[in-house]
Amino acid sequence: xxxxxxxxxxxxxxxxxxxxxxxxxxxxxxxxxxxxxxxxxxxxxxxxxxxxxxxxxxxxxxxxxxxxxxxxxxxxxxxxxxxxxxxxxxxxxxxxxxxxxxxxxxxxxxxxxxxxxxxxxxxxxxxxxxxxxxxxxxxxxxxxxxxxxxxxxxxxxxxxxxxxxxxxxxxxxxxxxxxxxxxxxxxxxxxx
Length: 192
What we know:
By secondary structure, the protein is mostly beta strands. It has a domain at 74-191: Sandwich (Jelly Rolls). Helix content is 14%, strand content 34%. It has one helix and eleven strands. It has one helix spanning 2-27, and strands at 71-78, 82-84, 90-91, 97-99, 107-118, 125-131, 136-137, 143-145, 151-154, 165-173, 179-191. Strands 3, 4, 6, 7, 8 and 10 form a six-stranded antiparallel beta sheet that branches. The longest helix is centred in the N-terminal third of the chain and has 26 residues, at 2-27.
């Protein structure tokens, strides 16, 4: 027991000694901060400008030319019509056509316009373009309608792949009703 008591007294003495040294440096060894005034600015001598015989250049008006661009719209008709009774995408026979965007060097945008209806008006009728060359739908071409009357609906902007591709129209419905495709066309917007 005496050993433990001696050990704790020794530790207490070390802690008290450290605190005394720290207090001494904090209280008695404080340095008085000196505040020095900011340096005074040195005067700078600026030489006076002497008159010059060199003329000052003047800005001449510049002529800007703007090129007017014009948009033109053309259509590529899609032949064929038909009806589809399917819940999954199915080809409409006779609607195949080839299209090459490279044939339109100033092509800016293209859209799919479809004239179609739902046979009984229950649910939705869907129509889209399918790129048979690469085996994938044309992005942006899907349109839908719930009307029993023929409606001409324009798709979003199409993403057409470069080169000559074989396209066809596909259709489906959301219920057990037929989608009737009457006609369609590509709307080509060119900018010159």
